[in-house]
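#lab-general

N.A. 3:47 PM
ok so I finally got the sequence cleaned up, no stray characters, all 174 residues accounted for. can someone with queue access submit it? mine expired

B.Y. 3:52 PM
send it over

N.A. 3:53 PM
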Amino acid sequence: MNRVLPIIIGVLIVGGVGWLVVSSRNAPERSNQQAESEKAPDFNLKDYSGNTVRIADFQGKPLVINSWAAWCSFCRKELVDFVTVQKEFGDRVIIIAVDRAESLTVAKKYTDELGVTNGMLFLLDPTDPFFQSIGGFSMPETIFADAKGTIVFHKRGPMNVQEMREKIQQLLSR
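B.Y. 4:20 PM
back already:
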């Protein structure tokens, strides 16, 4: 009996984690029709240097805004891929990574370890209003907004580099 309980608990944990992974990967992307009526949320967040950044600072530029956290295993590869596509698309699109409710120390240590700190704009969201403003419920989550600030796509869950490229191309062709 002493061995059965840990086995049952282990099976429940593995099953729960498996369900979360599958549901996150199969989470629907918000349709264009839903997204087009929404503006990207304005925010007032700090970058790693303590400078205040607002979405209005990027008016007239297409934006990709990704919500991530150091504890999110899917975010590790995705952040590296976002830096790759930021380099590929240059100043035609602005990619912003918003850290969810972690300290500067935690966030910067993580991006330094990945070697991505200087590859795009990283912002801190210490009390999590950005994630809440986009109706976030999975990790990571990414919104794609056109030059007018209208959300064109809202991706829930991780993306690979090819999907990022495709979404950005679609964003730029609007």
